[in-house]
Amino acid sequence: QLIYNYPEQLFGAAGVMAIEHADFAGVERLALVTGGEIASTFDHPELVKLGSCKLIEEVMIGEDKLIHFSGVALGEACTIVLHGATQQILDEAERSLHDALCVLAQTVKDSRTVYGGGCSEMLMAHAVTQLASRTPGKEAVAMESYAKALRMLPTIIADNAGYDSADLVAQLRAAHSEGNITAGLDMKEGTIGDMAILGITESFQVKRQVLLSAAEAAEVILRVDNIIKAAPRKRVPDHHPC
C-alpha cells in the first residue's frame, strides 16, 4: 500500500524502515520466514508478534530494485532469481524449477524412493510379462501391451541422452532377465550400470502418479468409440480490392 509523507516521517524519526507497495503474497512469505505475524489493524500492537532478521537492504538486480532480507529466523528460506535472454527461456526455466521443487517437496513428505534410470520400469515390465504368460484370454494381450509401454520409458531416457536406445534397452532387458534387479541406464557413460551403486533414485510418489495419470489417459482414449469431425469452413470470396 501507499504510505503518505507524514506517516513515513514518523517512521523515519522512530528509526523504523517502512516499505510501500508490498504485495500480500510477499508479506505472507516474509512473515513466515521472519517468525512474525501480519497485523491488519493497529488496535492492539502490543499483542502482535514481531519478526526479526539481521539485515535489510535495497539491492539492484538487473533494472529492478528489491528489498533483501538476510539472517532470517528460518535460515533455510531463500529467493531464487532467474535470468534469461528471452521471456520464453525464462518461462521454461521457471516451469522446470517449479517441477523440481514440487518433486523435492513431495520427497520430503514421503521419503520413499525407487531406483531410477529405467530400472523400476523394467522391473514392473518383467513382472507384468510373467503374469501375462499365466493369464488366459484377451487380458494377456492388454498386459503385454502395458509391459511394452513400460519399456518405452527407458527408451525415451536413452533417446533424450542421444544414445542408441534399441541397443541399451536390449542390454537392460537382458540384465534384468539374468536377475540383476538393480540394473539401469547410466547416461553419464552410456552403458548399463548398477543404480544402487550409482545412487540414482526417484521419488516413489512422483513415479506412482506418473503411472496412474498415464494409465487413466490411455483408458479415456480407449473408451472413445467414434470421432465426429466438423465440416471444414467454406472460404468466403474476398471482393475487396488490395
TrEMBL record:
It holds the Pfam family Cpn60_TCP1. Keywords: ATP-binding, Chaperone, Nucleotide-binding. GO terms for cellular component: chaperonin-containing T-complex. GO terms for molecular function: ATP binding; ATP-dependent protein folding chaperone. PANTHER family: CHAPERONIN. Belongs to the TCP-1 chaperonin family. This is Uncharacterized protein. The lineage of its organism: Eukaryota, Metazoa, Chordata, Craniata, Vertebrata.
